[in-house]
Each structure stands twice: as C-alpha cells, then as structure tokens.
Amino acid sequence: MRFWLLSFVLALYFTSGLSAKVKTAEECAKYDFKDMLDNCCKTNPGNLFERAELTGCGYKSAANMRIMKSYVLNKADSGNYTFSVSAKKGKLQMDSGRFCFAECVFRNFSWINSDDTLNYDMIKTNLTTKLKGMTSWLTLFESVHSTCQTCAEATDNKTVTAKNYRTCLTFPAVYMQCINSKFITGCPSMKTGSVCSTKFANFKKCDYFSATCT
User: Fold this and answer.
1) pLDDT tens per residue, range 2-41
2) What angle in degrees, to the nearest 10, is found between the helix axes of 120-130 and 135-153?
C-alpha cells in the first residue's frame, strides 16, 4: 500500500512538473516582445542592421529578419518549430530557416572565419562602430558581448540541417538573440506605466537567456 502511494505521488509530481513547463512555454509564445525597445524603453540603439544589409541574403520573410533585430525566442519555445538547440543550461527551439538567415548575414559581414568559427573581435568592432555616439548602449553592449559569446559557444548543436538539406551554423542566431535580450533587460531608462511594467515582467519570465546566460 505504501509503495503504491509513493509511486502515485512521484508520478503526480513529475506529470505536474511537465505540465507546468508546457503551460509556461505555451503562455510565453503568446507574448510579442519584438517591439519592446521601441515601445517601453525611453531610448533605443536604433537598427544595428539596415534592411538592405539583411535582404542581401535572399530571404524576404520579416520573421527571418527579426532574428537579427529583435527578441523572438519566446515564440520559438512553444515547441512548434523544427529544431532544438540543447545548451548547457537549457533548450532553445527555433525554425531552422532563421539559423540559416543569421549565418548568411554574418558571412556577408565577414564575421565567420574560414573554419566556421565566429570572429568575435570583428563582430565587436563592427557593432561598436554602429553604436558610436550612443554611450549608454555602447557601454551595455561592451559589457554583454563576452557573455553572449560564451552562451553561443555553449550550444551542443553547432549546426542545423534546413528543409533544403543545407547545413547552417547555430552560433550567429544564438549570439544575436542574446544581444537583443540583454538590450531589453539592460534598457537604461524603462518607461513607467502598467503596460510596460507588465511586459517587462513577462519578458523576464520568458527570456531564454535570463536563465542560461548571466
């Protein structure tokens, strides 16, 4: 009797835990954080990438472009996408096409070395130039660059196979999503009001990098 009761309790515990995780992922997938810097931060770093710099990769999808310019992983974490990257402290799920798009942009900027590693020194130099004159954002970027480098390198899956059987690197997308995440959490001056307070609270709950890259 005691053994049966213990088994029941353990089963209930693990099932409840799994349900809670699924519920959180589904809940987070409903939120839209892509415009948080524009809507809830009194200043923003502007577009690190102009549209012309992104369309050169041959992808016209706005969803693909957002991987470089805004935070979108909460929607990917719903589990409805085709690939998951297992990191040391968590799991990141995203449509494989976005990985390929991010890699294409990085190659256009010569941010990928001949051995398919990322040239983080060049990335830092180029993004520092783009943030020139924006002291608060430049300081923030310089403080999180190495953290996001470490986070990108920590992914167990270095590549993903897209639907067209092309193999794409995961590092570029993970790095840029980490930077976008840190820009939101590090906003120098967040707007007041219940709407933005609620959005920021939801973001902290759903942000992949708050739990994996600190």
Assistant:
1) 433 333 323 332 233 333 444 466 788 788 898 898 899 9
2) 160
